[in-house]
Fold this sequence. Notes:
This protein is mainly beta. The chain folds into three domains: about 15-230, no CATH class; about 240-260 and about 395-425; about 265-390, Sandwich (Jelly Rolls), CATH 2.60.120.380. The chain has three helices and 26 strands. Strand 3 (about 35-40) and strand 4 (about 45) form a beta hairpin. Helix 2 (about 240-265) packs antiparallel against helix 3 (about 395-425).
Amino acid sequence: MSAGVPNPPSTPHVKAMNCPGCGAALSLRSFTQAVTVVCDSCHSILDAQDPQLKILQQFKKATGEDPPLIPVGTRGTIRGTPYEAVGFQRRTIQVEGIPYSWHEYVLFNPYKGFRYLTEYNGHWNDTSTLRALPTLNAFAGNVRVTYLGETYRHFQTAQASTTYVLGEFPWQVRVGEANEVTDYVSPPRVLSSERSGNEVTWSMGEYISGRDIWRTFALSGDPPAPIGVYENQPSPFSTDTKTIWTIFGAFAIFLLLMMLGFSSFARDEQAFQGAYIFDTNARGETSFVTDPFELKGRISTLELSTSTNVDNNWIYLNYALINQDTGQAYDFGREVSYYHGYDSDGSWTEGSRNDSVAIPSVPPGTYFLRVEPESDSGHGTIHYEITAKRDVPQFSFFGIALLALLVPAALITWRSINFEHLRWAESDHAPMESSSDSGGDDD
């Protein structure tokens, strides 16, 4: 398909003729630029360059279930230039015996020449013929092409047959004619090469929404909804993915600096330590209070750690941290248990002999601990040690904040990867076998 720029007449007009096959009136909208024209009445393909309109081919009319969405003669403005739809063809490829068809529309402007629109399953491309050849490169066994500094990946190669035509064309169109079509993609653009014998024609398509097409040509109703992911359809997540990972990186650095700052300024000093023995065979009251200890400085976190010698046993400690001056109490309980043994899978362990808990926002003052231990009777004595540290840096907040940032970033990334997976599932380089019905299309 060559798209030469014509020398238009001073006053553009539609050339009227009659079909030599049936006598029906014909109109040439692209003037002398038309190479073939199709009679809408008898479906004869005529040589528009022949004054006698020689009949080149006749074909049976296809069923009316797949009419052009843009009727021949419809006018619209693309990239600031008015165009008229002068031709339409349906092209089909076979994939594992299943036919897949798409539409191509020929647009004409007497000053700019020809332009093309393609549509498949609601996906549209604004297409024009290239005037310079791309550079082909082999990359890890996969052919890629470079054009104007942009690299395009090979997507698909197939034999495309013309199965229906209407209107006029700037080349000799034939129903049933098959050409090898190869697509290379770099969303939102696609480069297509079409080989007919020894002649190869290159074109570039750019993805455009159906709603823009409908507005451009003032078409009634709504455009067909896009089905599936098209070969050069821009991912709606690519920009979001880059943005959210940039935000994630910035906040991660900020959180790291905050963590280092809190860690460097934290006092992390021991305020109390005591060793105790609990007799599991003892009867009566087991609770007691520790010696008072002082918490200095500002309101901060108190970390209470418990270390025991439990072995296939457990101990539960009811704690109360009580302010000696105000009577304010922080009640909580901690269980420490440790079990181990052997089974058919080998040795195993469960639990730990150590435990720690952070009590946030504890004011300075003099405190003591009320402790009440519990365990199963008959297990002898359990040794345990209690340690209280003042103003211990806690990193769990930073972990939670980092996770809260990571979840949306990971979700958007997954959706972006899935979008690309659906795109390439329809290519010659599918990541896995796909039986989706949304593929097998070329521009």
